[in-house]
Structures are given as structure tokens and as C-alpha cells.
């Protein structure tokens, strides 16, 4: 039997010859509560058994027919409606099976939207073995074509995208919970048919949930994790155990979750705004289905650097930790630090862009993103504390986000060690300025926003500019002075030493104008406070002469002019 696969040059869809009717979605899901966290068992409590999700009848074709409201024992030869005349909507099921197998999947999806009867016929086809055998053959043909993801033909011929559109069309009138069950059932059966890989199911999930609400996606993500029960068990193990205790399971979780939910390119700088928002939305859903204390560990598993050994690839939890800088390996040089930190923070930046767009999830405020970043650092503490280089470079990569929140957190007067944190914040400003100068030569452009945010916070905190505002400005100048003094004192008669001193001088010079702006703001405010006092003093020294109670009229004044 020859199957027709749609290509760009193929004939029009069969439904171009019919008037399609798209039905409204059911409102059942609006009356039900949003799904809870992914297995509250991610807490440090014993994992309860999950009988509903075993590889048993829940994923059989009989269960799928029940969900799709299809007769459990269909007859291939009998007409669906014996009292109606034979036609397109009333033919033997064996004929429908042949037609749907020959047609491309997109035409089958469109046919399911023509009428209730055609939708019922397509549902019956999806709940048979013919559908899964057809998907297997389509998948093999797709692999043999060797399409690249950036090719126009990729999306047109991808069987997973077509299958996702089919699932979406045949479940359009069902509740979100039922759609999730149908999706899980089809994916489990299809994964077994294709050999157990999760590759491609992420594209299917994205197609099904396109234009869905955030709450609806959260329900689907729980179903998608259960496509591979081993992935779910591995996820629970790696989150409740220590960092690096299950090396193989950590890589399984990283690979499985990336294939399911983070299928796009993860370089935020190379994405379109819409792709960044979608990336942040899926990451948000994934993180929020895990309790907060495990979010940092899950984030590092997904985006942290990896290394290879004789046993295979593993997540390197100690890469950013402190060590003797004199014996640092070539693998840990500063360009690699920037490369891996940029990859690590792509998710953080995507969450911020998504939150600022206000189009999906508004949960991730700047403060919550910063706290999540602190949990990422905390997840690595078993291997050691993050080095000063890693911390300062991470803040330099996201100055308007992480660095801004870092300054406001350090400059909180309610801290018992407020002065010490203020000194550390001033020194961190110098370190961040060094990195930004090396990368762009214009650090003031990137530091203007976080520093204005910090100084405004200090002015509002004290109610004036003579306290913490002035002190922090002086500490920054002092930190720059001490840094230059230390470089000169330790300088040797080498080109490297002279380059470091010249770099420091140029970096400080590039910040002079911005720093003077804060100083001028403080001076102008002080002058503004002194002006009323000067006016009061002048009023006492030069009393105002009382005006004439009977001023001349305008005409009289003109007459007296000689």
C-alpha cells in the first residue's frame, strides 16, 4: 500500500473541497482547579506507588477507545449507520482505515473537523493498530529523507507535528484533563512502537498545546513526563539525592526533559522574541511543577556544564567552584567560563523576558528569579562555594537583572551586617565593570540601569542623600582606588602587568561620567535643601518694605512720567 505524504509541491488538502466547521471547546476545564505540583512526593517523603500510571490497561487501545468514546469492539465490515445511505460519512470501517492511511496526516486532521460523524470516524481510526503502523512507516520515511530542522520541508513532513495536530483536532471538544489522558495514551503506545525514544514527542506536545493557556499547559506537562515512567522515577531520585550521586540518572533527566519541553535552540541571543517567550514559558511550567527547594538543582541539571569521562558524560557540579587559580586547567579559562555561564543563564534571561511580556506567566518577578539563581548556587555547595570569578561573571552577563537584584539585596539596611555587605557590593561593582569593559569597552552603558536602581533604593531607604547614598558612592571610589593601587604595587616589569594597569585605568575612566552623575545628584539635592535656609536668612536681614495701601492707578502713573 502506498502512502501519500504531503510535501510543498503536493496536491491541496482534501478538505479544500468541503466546508469545515470548527467547534468551540468545552468549558469543563474552567470549572476545575489547576493541577497541583508534580507529585508532592518530591518532598523528602517516601514515594507512594502510582498504580494509575503503570504499563497496564491505562495505556491500552481499549482505554483509548473509552476516552475517545469509540465502541470497544468495532466491526470492520459493518456500516456505522445501517439505516443511512452509503456515503463519505457512512462507509465500512475497513474503507475508512484504507482512506485515512493513504491520505497525509494533515488531511486526516482537517477531516475530523468537518463534522461530528467524520470526527467519530477519525477517532475510531486513531484507536486501531493501523494508525500506529502508519506512524512507524511515516517516521522511517521522514528519517530517510534527512531533513534539517531549518528546512521548509521539515515542518511540512514531520510526522510528530502532524500527529500532534491530529490529536488536537479529535479532542477539541474534550476537557483539558481528558485531552491529557488521550495524549499520554497515544504517546505511550507510539513510543513503544518506535523503539522507546522520546525524540520528536516534544514537537508533538508543542503542536497540541499551541495557543493554549498557561494553566492548560501545566496539566499537559504532567502527562508528558509520564510518557517514560523511568524518566519520572529518575527525576524524583536526582532531586531528592545529593548533587552528582546519580550521574547516569542526571543525564537521563537532562536529555528527557530537553527532548520533551526545551526542543528549541536555547541561545537567547539567537532567538526571536516569540521564541524566547515560548522557551521561558515551558521552562516556567517545568520549574513550577517542582517544589521551590528543588528548583535550583533541576535548573542546573538542565543547563549546567557537562564533562566526559571513561564512563560517559556527566553534569559537572564543581566547575564554577573555588580552586587554586595558579593551577587552573585550560578547560576552566575565562572564555570557557563566559561560554558556560551564558548557557547556564539563558533560562534566567528567558524567564525575565517572558515575565516582562505579560503574555503567559507573570510569576517570575526579578526578586524570584534572583532567589532561584541563589538556589542554583546552593545546589553546588556540596562540591564547594562558587568562585569570585564565576559569581562576578554571572552578574556581568545579566546586569539589568541579576546584578540589579544583587545590589538591592546587599544594600538592605535591615541587615545586621549591612556595612560589610555594602563594602562587598562596592567591590562587586568594580569586578563587574572589569568584565563588561573586556567584552564591550563601554561598561557604563550596561551598569547605568542597575546602579541607578541601587542609588534610588538607597535614597528612598534613608529619605535623603547624605547617608547610605553618599557612603556607597565613596566606597565605590575607594574600591577602584585600592584596586589600582594593588595592581601598581604588585606589578612586574612585564607586558602583562602594564596591560592590566592600562586596562584598569581605561575601565575607571569609562565609568567616570556615570559616577559623577551620582555625585552631582547628591550635590544638587543638598543645594536644594540649603536654598530655603538662605532665603529665610535674607528675609531676616532685609525686611520687606510694606507696599503703598493706595497704589496709583495706571493712568495716574503715566501722567507723572516727565
TrEMBL record:
Coiled-coil regions listed: none
Domain F-box as annotated: residue spans: 85-135
InterPro entries recorded: ARM_FBXO47, F-box_dom, FBXO47
Name of a matching Pfam family: ARM_FBXO47
Superkingdom of origin: Eukaryota
Official protein name in the record: F-box domain-containing protein
Source species of the chain: Caenorhabditis nigoni
Gene for this chain: Cni-F54D5.9
Amino acid at each position: 500500500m502506498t502512502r501519500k505524504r504531503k510535501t510543498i509541491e503536493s496536491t491541496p488538502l482534501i478538505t479544500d473541497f468541503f466546508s469545515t466547521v470548527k467547534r468551540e471547546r468545552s468549558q469543563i476545564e474552567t470549572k476545575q482547579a489547576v493541577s497541583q505540583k508534580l507529585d508532592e512526593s518530591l518532598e523528602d517523603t517516601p514515594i507512594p506507588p502510582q498504580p494509575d500510571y503503570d504499563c497496564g490497561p491505562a495505556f491500552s487501545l481499549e482505554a483509548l477507545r473509552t476516552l475517545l468514546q469509540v465502541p470497544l469492539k468495532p466491526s470492520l465490515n459493518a456500516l456505522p449507520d445501517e439505516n443511512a445511505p452509503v456515503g463519505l460519512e457512512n462507509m465500512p470501517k475497513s474503507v475508512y482505515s484504507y482512506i485515512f492511511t493513504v491520505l497525509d496526516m494533515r488531511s486526516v486532521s482537517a477531516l475530523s473537523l468537518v463534522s461530528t460523524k467524520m470526527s467519530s470516524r477519525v477517532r475510531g481510526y486513531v484507536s486501531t493498530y493501523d494508525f500506529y503502523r502508519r506512524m512507524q512507516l511515516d517516521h522511517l520515511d521522514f528519517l530517510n529523507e534527512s531533513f534539517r530542522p531549518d528546512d521548509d520541508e521539515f515542518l511540512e513532513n514531520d510526522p510528530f507535528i502532524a500527529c500532534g495536530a491530529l490529536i488536537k483536532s479529535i479532542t477539541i471538544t474534550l476537557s483539558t484533563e481528558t485531552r491529557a489522558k488521550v495524549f499520554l495514551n497515544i504517546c505511550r503506545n507510539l513510543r513503544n512502537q518506535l523503539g522507546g525514544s522520546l525524540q520528536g514527542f516534544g514537537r508533538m506536545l508543542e503542536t497540541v498545546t499551541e495557543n493554549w493557556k498557561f494553566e492548560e499547559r501545566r496539566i499537559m506537562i504532567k502527562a508528558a513526563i509520564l510518557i517514560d515512567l523511568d524518566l519520572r522515577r529518575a527525576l524524583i531520585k536526582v532531586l531528592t539525592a545529593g548533587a552528582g550521586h546519580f550521574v547516569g540518572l542526571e543525564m537521563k533527566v537532562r536529555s528527557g526533559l530537553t527532548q520533551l519541553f526545551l526542543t528549541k535552540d536555547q541561545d537567547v541571543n539567537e532567538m526571536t522574541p516569540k521564541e524566547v517567550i515560548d522557551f521561558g514559558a515551558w521552562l516556567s511550567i517545568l520549574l513550577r511543577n517542582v517544589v521551590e527547594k528543588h528548583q535550583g538543582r533541576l535548573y542546573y541539571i538542565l543547563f549546567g556544564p557537562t564533562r566526559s569521562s571513561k564512563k560517559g558524560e556527566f553534569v559537572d557540579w564543581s566547575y564554577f567552584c573555588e580552586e587554586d587559580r595558579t593551577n587552573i586547567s585550560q578547560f576552566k579559562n575565562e572564555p570557557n567560563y563566559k561560554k558556560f555561564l551564558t548557557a547556564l543563564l539563558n533560562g534566567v534571561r528567558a524567564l525575565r523576558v517572558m515575565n516582562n511580556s505579560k503574555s503567559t506567566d507573570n510569576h517570575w518577578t526579578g526578586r524570584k528569579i534572583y532567589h532561584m539563581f541563589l538556589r542554583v548556587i546552593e545546589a553546588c555547595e556540596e562540591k564547594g562555594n562558587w568562585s569570585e570569578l564565576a559569581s562576578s561573571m554571572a552578574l556581568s552577563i545579566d546586569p539589568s537583572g541579576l546584578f540589579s537584584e544583587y545590589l538591592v539585596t546587599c544594600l538592605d539596611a535591615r541587615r545586621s551586617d549591612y556595612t560589610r555587605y555594602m563594602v562587598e557590593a562596592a567591590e562587586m561593582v568594580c569586578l563587574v565593570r572589569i568584565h563588561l569593559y573586556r567584552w564591550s569597552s563601554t561598561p557604563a552603558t550596561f551598569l547605568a540601569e542597575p546602579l541607578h536602581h541601587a542609588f534610588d533604593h538607597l535614597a528612598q531607604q534613608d529619605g535623603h542623600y547624605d547617608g547610605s547614598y553618599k557612603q556607597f558612592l565613596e566606597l565605590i571610589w575607594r574600591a577602584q582606588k585600592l584596586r589600582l593601587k594593588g595592581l601598581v604595587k604588585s606589578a612586574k616589569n612585564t607586558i602583562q602587568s602594564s596591560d592590566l594597569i592600562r586596562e584598569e585605568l581605561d575601565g575607571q575612566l569609562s565609568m567616570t561620567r556615570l559616577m559623577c552623575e551620582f555625585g552631582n545628584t547628591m550635590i544638587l539635592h543638598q543645594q536644594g535643601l540649603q536654598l530655603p535656609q538662605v532665603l529665610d536668612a535674607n528675609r531676616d536681614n532685609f525686611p520687606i518694605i510694606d507696599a503703598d495701601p493706595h497704589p496709583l492707578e495706571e493712568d495716574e502713573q503715566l501722567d507723572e512720567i516727565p
